[in-house]
Amino acid sequence: MARRLSFPAFCLCLLSFSLLNDPILCKTLKRDVKALNEIKASLGWRVVYSWVGDDPCGDGDLPLWSGVTCTTQGDYRVVTKLEVYAVSIVGPFPTAVTNLLDLTRLDFHNNKLTGPIPPQIGRLKRLQILNLRWNKLQDVIPPEIGELKSLTHLYLSFNNFKGEIPREFASLPELRYLHLQENRFSGRIPSELGTLQHLRHLDVGNNHLVGTIRELIRIDGCFPSLRNLYLNDNYFTGGVPAQLANLTNLEILYLSHNKMSGIIPAELARMPRLTYLFLDYNQFSGRISDAFYKHPLLKEMFIEGNAFRQGVKPIGYHKVLEVSDTDFLV
């Protein structure tokens, strides 16, 4: 026969269960406390003034540190998010961050961090979002960043990174957004990036990159999920291959301010989702196919600064076409 608890005993059990699962009573993992206090010691007053006490997850009457998110795991609390942005952090990237092994989100954007990303960044195996844009970081990207297998969003734009774009980025199977614009990257874009099955957004604009689109899409079935491709303001040469139309999910194609040439293949007008097409300030020639003007989704097409021949626009033409008469060769 099942044994029944008396009412006071039942209440005591509920109270005990509540106390054991109350995150306030859980201790913060010593590893994370040590790491956050090391970071605290290296940051400027704008952050430190709001980080009161020794425990970043809160201690008694003291609140959780601003920008820190903690999660209960068993009998301990661990730091899972660190978001300290737009507070004028000055100095090198705090290496102690790489000891926060349960981080899923690290956001230091819009600060004044300098120096390189430490190779120890590869220790953050659970990291999903890494946002370091709008800083003064420099040097090459450590190959260890390819060890962040859970990464979905990588923002490194508006820094001073140099060297080649690491091939190790192709080892990030969950990557969806890759922002590398406004740096000093050189060399060619690794074609291996085309093997990323979930990559939706690739922005390498405003760098010192060379090569051709043909080299970038040379792998069969490449970039199956890509929606936005920004190659603008680099030193790309060659033409636009008709095979680019195989990227059937592409919505934005931004090729402005390069050294590309040749004709624009009519096959691109059959890309079903193409919405914005930027071709301006290259060395393109020939004639823009009427099919582009009939595209049901294409909203804007920029073609100025080239040597296109003027064509007859079809009846019902309604595209926003950024062009002056002097850009046409009759």
Show the helix and strand layout.
Blueprint: H1 7-21, E1 27-28, H2 30-42, H3 45-48, E2 68-73, E3 76-83, E4 90-92, E5 105-107, E6 112-115, E7 129-131, E8 136-139, E9 153-155, E10 160-163, E11 177-179, E12 184-187, E13 201-203, E14 208-209, H4 213-216, E15 228-230, E16 252-254, E17 261-262, E18 276-278, E19 283-287, H5 290-293, E20 300-302, E21 307-309, E22 320-322
Parallel strand pairs: 1-3, 3-5, 4-6, 5-7, 6-8, 7-9, 8-10, 9-11, 10-12, 11-13, 12-14, 13-15, 15-16, 16-18, 17-19, 18-20, 19-21, 20-22
Antiparallel strand pairs: 2-3
What do these coordinates show?
Pfam families: LRR_1 (PF00560), LRR_8 (PF13855), LRRNT_2 (PF08263). Keywords: Leucine-rich repeat, Membrane, Repeat, Signal, Transmembrane, Transmembrane helix. This is Leucine-rich repeat-containing N-terminal plant-type domain-containing protein. Residues 30-71 form the Leucine-rich repeat-containing N-terminal plant-type domain. Residues 1-26 form the signal peptide. The structure is a single chain. By secondary structure, this protein is α/β, with parallel strands linked by helices. 12% of the residues lie in helices and 23% in strands. It has helices at residues 7-21, 30-42, 45-48, 213-216, 290-293, and strands at 27-28, 68-73, 76-83, 90-92, 105-107, 112-115, 129-131, 136-139, 153-155, 160-163, 177-179, 184-187, 201-203, 208-209, 228-230, 252-254, 261-262, 276-278, 283-287, 300-302, 307-309, 320-322. The strands form three sheets. Strands 1, 2, 3, 5, 7, 9, 11, 13, 15, 16, 18, 20 and 22 form a 13-stranded mixed sheet that branches. The protein has a six-stranded parallel sheet with strand order 4-6-8-10-12-14, with no helix packed on it. A three-stranded parallel sheet has the order 17-19-21, with no helix packed on it. Strand 2 and strand 3 (76-83) form a beta hairpin. Residues 1-24, 314-318 and 323-330 have low confidence and may be disordered.
